[in-house]
Structure of Aminopeptidase N:
Amino acid sequence: PVIRREDYTAPAFWIDTVDLTFDLDPAKTRVLNRMKLRRNPDVATQALRLDGEELNLARVLVNGQGTSFKLDGGHLVLENLPDGHEPFELEIFTTCCPAKNSKLMGLYVSNDSFFTQCEAEGFRRITYFLDRPDVMASYSVTLRADKARYPVLLSNGNLVDQGALDDGRHFAKWVDPHRKPSYLFALVAGQLVAREQRITSRAGKEHLLQVFVRPGDLDKTEHAMNSLMHSVAWDEARFGLSLDLERFMIVATSDFNMGAMENKGLNIFNTKYVLANAATATDTDYANIESVVGHEYFHNWTGNRVTCRDWFQLSLKEGLTVFRDQEFSQDLAGEPSARAVKRIEDVRVLRTAQFPEDAGPMAHPVRPDQYIEINNFYTVTVYEKGAEVVRMMQTLVGREGFTKGMSLYFERHDGHAVTCDDFAQAIADANPGSALAVLLPQFKRWYSQAGTPRLQASGHYDAAARTYTLTLAQSCPPTPGQPHKEPFVIPMGLGLLAPDGRELPLQLATEAAPVPGHRTFVVTQASETLTFQNIDAEPVPSILRGFSAPVILDGGYTDAQLLTLLAHDSDPFNRWEAGQRLALNRAIKYIAEDNQGTRTLALDEAFIEAMRGVLRHPTLDAAFKELVLTLPAETYIAEQLDVVDPQRIHAVREAMREQLAHALADDWQWAYETHRDTGGYQPDPVSSGRRALAGLALTQLCLVARQSGDTVWPGKAYQRFKDAGNMTDRFNALSALVSSGHSLAAQALPRFHALFKDEALVLDKWFALQAGAPDRGGNVLPAVRQLMAHPDFNLRNPNRARSVIFSYCNANPGAFHRTDAAGYVFWSERVIELDALNPQVAARLARALDRWKKLAEPYRHAAREAIARVAAKTDLSNDVREVVTRALAE
Ligand code: ARG
Ligand code: ZN
């Protein structure tokens, strides 16, 4: 059943209050749901249709009396409700089985504790309800459970009562002072301990912050708590938004489908985004925790106080909240260069994950028009591209203007369920006369048109007139259901560099004097030109600075221009981008050259010298150097090609990596020796950048050793692996051995496992490293099958399933795409196997073959067959069905 955005109608009933009583039992939990409802006067009188899924219904009472009802395909239908618009009471008693809930939606058990996940449509698995975000109610919740087994009982809002019951049971009563949609409901019950922190807000209010984890994990909660305190302070300082609750709780669970969930006052997190100490977590983990804690906290305003009218508006809260967490991490990073590093990392995610989505069978607008299963639309498009759309708004109205727009948004919509249009309108209305306000209808095409626009730039220098003309042409390829696209509003950050790298003042032909400072031009036409005057020599254009719009820039750059940008651009993003383009151009050339092996591939001196220049640069940050010296990902390279041979791409990229390793061997040694020691562990941007560069250097040095047979560097890597004082250095050293295929890896891996056998998140890394290792003669797939037979493997645990299966199928293209199709066979088996347990996780895995149509033979044919094999199953979930049907379409 396809759900369409245009079919939205307001609910026929409102639910004003909900009073829930849970008797928690893993095998049979009893849920008493007492609601006050009334008819929506704006909608024609009709029956009440409540959503429900996998519930056992025991009793229905209306105003305390028995009533007739029907069960109709997952709906509880009540036809004989009181007439008129007076409120009435509805009491529903159901039971469910949390222990058997392997989908991890609704109420489930993990490690003998109870957790919930209700977004998007999980609440209907707890009780019958109008499970849609525009129905907002006041909740009070009583939890009853065995006291010894479940000493901690949590729900949204404030704890108003608690006490003992008979038979060793106890209860807790929670009242949420804020109205909310059902997807923000949560409860937790189990043996948990909390790190606590009292804070006073700017407004002088006291709050209690708590981070709940299993006993034994308390020493891994400091960073999450610090991140939470930073989040509270940041939202007050940047947007004037304060915490609106007496207490704010985070609870970690090791069984979770996604990253985390912003339930009102009771955020539930995947342990991966909470638990960290220097011994078990890497710098990347620390950074992810900071941004996910921020993200969920920021949802309290952008998502909870103002929520979505319907799920097509998901980006209203997700795009905006990703934008906010990105800004938060940038602000915490502080230094401009550290901010730029964060920006580059964010763009890298967008371009390696979202651009392919936008070009594939699952392409959809930031505000989708239809879906079969909403869980399939928690995507990089809705999240990351959505964040870019919000970022462009900020660019068009300025940072202060954007803050004003946010204020107007809350003034207008606080406490309501609204649309993406409402958001854009508020930002525009707060900034009359801004480019956003003037161009609003056209700007909103970013919400309605799928696909990544291409921006083609060509420059012409007129020496006699001393002018430089930049011609910009935009286009956007067709996507499913959208054959034709209208031009977008593209903010374009621009600079012109003189041949010696100096930044030139920009003065349009229509301007009397140059306008100093950074400039953003707004491209709106299919084709347009910008002419600059008083230019003495042909400049090098630095286009789309800071990645000012989510487009593919076809800059027509020559190598010489790219080398100038890499050496001199004052915009760090474009400086990095120049290095990536130099590498990409070479990769594409080698891939096209049909020399069977890659032995003859030879990187040119100019490129190597440029890379050496960055690596040895006296003032650039280590973190930035690491980003420049890392070659574009295989999936990113693949997106630039019409026909993709994943093994060829892998071989070429590996050969380039090896060449860089050899050619810069002395420089890598220097880099390693100068950056290897970062002192006591701190996850700050400077020391994590140093660790990243040292890690890359070590990997490169081990690669050199692999060819030469030298054992010194692998030996050093092994030593570092054994002695490292933190997980980042330890894991980087292990990964250097594994990725260079050195025999010492065979000693290091079991040692690592023995050291961390009780640390689930570290074991995930151990599994992922092996499943993601570079393929050598097809060795990875057998290794993956063995990993799945390992006693620590567990398909039901999403983190563990992802660490093996996704690391292979979704993140190791060189090993997954095999000429014998065995990778695809493995994939189809796992999709089917997982689908029976957890459709959401299965559907993510199903997307590993999204881009099958681009594959060269024999991959293409074999991939199609594997997808068809999955599609042939008759009992697939909606989740997987939607993905494979779209993959096979037309
Ligand atoms: N709203 C959550 C977040 O972005 C994600 C929850 C997604 N859950 C799901 N079942 N699709 O932080
Ligand atoms: Zn979110």
